[in-house]
Amino acid sequence: FKLLLLCAACSTMSHVGEHRVAEGEVEAALFDVDGTLVDSMGKFYPSWNQAGQAMGLGDEAMSEEEFYGFGGRPLPDIVRELHRRRKGTEASDDFVSEFIRTKKAFHKENEKAAGPPSAIAPVVALARQYVARGIPVVAATSGLREHVEAHLKANGLDDLFPSNKLVCAADLPPGRGKPDPLIFLTAAQKVKADPTKCRAYEDAEAGFQAAFRAGCEVIDCRDLTGYPCPDALRKAMAQQRLNRHWILPN
Question: What predicted TM-score, i.e. pTM, was given to this entire model?
Fold first, then answer.
């Protein structure tokens, strides 16, 4: 019965690329966190503009559509790209470090007032169904470990994704975060799974590309019934899907 539920849920989501793993051959399920397991994306947005204003990048350093377009990329990479767009120059390492420190401080205050983000129920249900079938799950995220672990714990998900089943971009060499495939290759390795026999659940273009390049079956969880999808995200999704030129036909 659980297998039928899992098959039915997968059929309601969009795949990225043509690779599929047969039900009886799935060795692991790999999950992004922010925007996939936890509805945290919208809560992270305000601190980008608060930090941007404090760091001299303008009153609106990042539009909401830009924010969703950056989804899945490591924070330092986003800061550097934002600096290029707003200043036309490369950001120094000191600027990047100070921007991230400032952003974290603003986000901490914002979350203290609003509370932690909630879990995305239909995706969490899938993760629990895999575990019930004896299939290991691992999280692969560009988020900061301190935020990710706190949000998972706040939603009772730390039993599914303890620290040793969590790979963060900061755990990788510099420049190897999404869309580089290393984060998904590392996640599969944690449970000794063949990446080509893994299903990867993602919500952002950089994550889709990383999982695709790792050889996984890639699933866009944003089309799952019950997924929270604001208008700015829908607009970004439509544009990204039109520009998905990195997928090469088999």
Answer: 0.84
